[in-house]
Amino acid sequence: MKNEIIFNLIKVHQRIEDACKIAGRNPADVQLLLATKTVPAEKIRIAIQAGETLMGENKMQELRDKDYELKNLPVERHFIGHLQTNKVKDVLKYVTCIQSLDRLSLADELHKQLKNQNRTFRCFCSGQYFLRRK
């Protein structure tokens, strides 16, 4: 299992380097985010030990459970799926970025929680919803 994971990571990084070469980009400017949805912690641990540092989860419970199982490893977590407004406070405990800000009510709750914690936060907005609003 370990060799297969490492082999696959090497192949993905080679494809990134090849694509960057074609596009005239520096591969060091590209980050690989591993979507770890339903992936067991032991497999994620292998990827982290192989040098991967960016993981994405889309379920609060998995995020919490994997954070506990991998708590001493150097990994940055992003939330990558649909986020319910009532889960914002919990998600903020575990992630450094939300990649799925898709509605105003979620943005409002995120702003409220971050203001209470006196902190800022990175997020990616889905323009489709916000463009339709007047």
UniProtKB/TrEMBL annotation:
Keyword Nucleotidyltransferase set for record: no
PANTHER family according to UniProt: PROLINE SYNTHETASE CO-TRANSCRIBED BACTERIAL HOMOLOG PROTEIN, PYRIDOXAL PHOSPHATE HOMEOSTASIS PROTEIN
Species, as recorded: Flavobacterium chungbukense
Gene3D superfamilies (UniProt xref): Alanine racemase
Protein name: Alanine racemase N-terminal domain-containing protein
Family annotation (SUPFAM superfamilies): PLP-binding barrel (SSF51419)
InterPro entries tied to this protein: PLP-binding_barrel, PyrdxlP_homeostasis
Keywords: Pyridoxal phosphate
